[in-house]
Protein 1
Amino acid sequence: MSVLDLSAASATHISVVAGGYELGVGRTVPSVAAVLGLISVIAGGLALVRSRRPGTGRVRIIGALVLGPISAIVGGLHGANAAGGLGTGNGLAGAVFAVVLGLIGTILGALALARSRWTDRGAGSMPAS
């Protein structure tokens, strides 16, 4: 048995062992998009909680408003182009999660932005004691 035969046999064995668990482009892209969506939800939630304090949370608001739409668009595009249904290994479930998390993160970021603008306006109109 030559070295090429051994390497071919070991490569075949590896692909059989890891057959259903290989993380290819079909699963990686929506997984990354879902993680970006999750980050936007966390950033938007933290910004919304802290938006009552004037001048805080701008970076979180911007992060939620940038990462949320990116996650939703990438997840939507991947979901529209995925061949097969759920459980086929094409990343459709990850794409759906990416869209949902991206939309939630965008909404939380927009609410935090609106609340922070309202709080900044209200703080500026109060008379000084």
Protein 2
Amino acid sequence: MPDPGPPTLNERPSPWDRAALKLINDPRDLSFVHLMVACIVTALLGLSLYPLSLTVLQGDWFWAAAGAYLLIWALWTLDRFILMLHCTSHRILFRRQYGWLNHVIPLVLGPFFGETPQTYFCHHMGMHHPENNLHDDLSSTMRFQRDRFGHWLRYFFRFFFLIIFELSLYFVRRGQAKMAYKAVGGELVFWTVVTLLAVFVDWRATLVVFAFPVLMVRVLMMAGNWAQHAFVDAAHPEDPYRNSITCIDSRYNRRCFNDGYHIYHHVKARCHWSDYPGEFQDNKAVYGEHDAIVFRGLDFFLVWALLMVGAYRTLAKAMVELPGAPARSIEERIEFMRTRLRPIPG
């Protein structure tokens, strides 16, 4: 099924949608307002575990309710929230006169979805995009053998335990102390509140609602970023067409605002999410000239999993033949991919 293009607005929007359209910069982002409501409902369900754990839910009943909450959280809103946060970090959702509403997604809802306040914006916008997966990028994949699970584990544990320190030093060295304060402050405030909730209210609810999501989301983000930048041309590591991949025609794109179009996202980071499929169709020849890697029917997490188990043939069969790129057999595709998975020394 094709990925979604620009959304069609209802000729007779509901009163709720008419009100929302007056608040946002781009009417194509109306779905974000709808999603914010769903995420608020999810957050309230999480918060309800606190009074229930202290009154009604005891022992196994609590863990049954916690499991039900996490299923709702994971299957209903998690993936879409993360990509809404991504899109609204690049393109401001609410108009300037309603600017305070722009803090709701990262500061109010973010902690319920594994995102400590400010750190995503600082890492993604302040560091990752300017560095473009090159060696100064703290989440660069280049130094690793990118089809080895052991290498990914090293990559993940470094991020999980050291990123807040490395990120703050990165900003200080570049004279961006304000960004360093934001990143460190957001992390410290989050974990301070989590500790207080665990000690003085209920540790079980705190574990489920705030602590576990951080672990899960950081695993997913590092698996996703690994796959997005797994195939790097050592001769042209700065070229987004050769250091990123694109995934088309996937359920993930239909749920998550065309996030699979990662190549062009690094070419033009402010491109609206609904324009990516059209851009790709119009410029396939450009992708072919750069010998870009594009997969059909896969998403980043599937690409990561297939790399970890060495399923190169499955990856090769999913590769899109691009105009202007060399025609390759399945075996030649596998060898081509392997050349882009090798470590690139700094």
Protein 3
Amino acid sequence: MIDREALHRHLQELLEADRFKDYGPNGLQVEGKPVIHKLVTGVTASLALIDAAIAAKADAILVHHGLFWRGQDGRLTGWMKQRVARLIQHDINLFAYHLPLDAHTSLGNNAQWGQRLGLVADGRFGDQDLGFLGPVPDELDLAGMVERVTQVLGRAPVMVPGDGRALKRAAWCSGGAQGYFEGAIAAGADVFLTGEISEPQAHYARETGVAFLACGHHASERYGVQAIGQHLVSRLGLQHEFLDIDNPA
């Protein structure tokens, strides 16, 4: 078990949360029990995850996508009221780390996703160095990369193939980072992997020859919270359970 504030301080320091300009508050978003025995991790602070954490008898939840984002209305009505009310009713702490959890060099989403794909970063690119860049293993052509993504994530990516060039350098950034594609191209990537694709990226891929793989926002961001949870088990002795609430996006 650990004191809530001690856990908060540990996470803030581990993820260097204060150095990021983010779209919402990182850290403790909803205050619950002062002492934490069991932590549940998940991708998004949805009602389904909160209810699953209650069933798992969690004292705290750690997510990548929290409740509060820049530009929101701010009123506790509808779905927001339901989520917050459930947390408060059961006295559960909610911790959320967005960009800090993407960027961590070993425990973050990009580092952990890359590790599962056999990609090791030797460079960074993009805003706040969120994008990862590294060599493609010799055995992987584009078809092999698609097959590996499918095996690792359990879903086939949306693929725009580019010009069929050999894959020497890969760039990747989990989640909704399709806007990083131009930066990946400028950084010398032959293939870019992220969670989502928007209309312009198909044209960029065709016109530049750099392949684009949209692998799923949720699917590509399941790994950072798991790694953090395992870290907290080994370092702080917390009980930990990862709960994967399926999401087709």
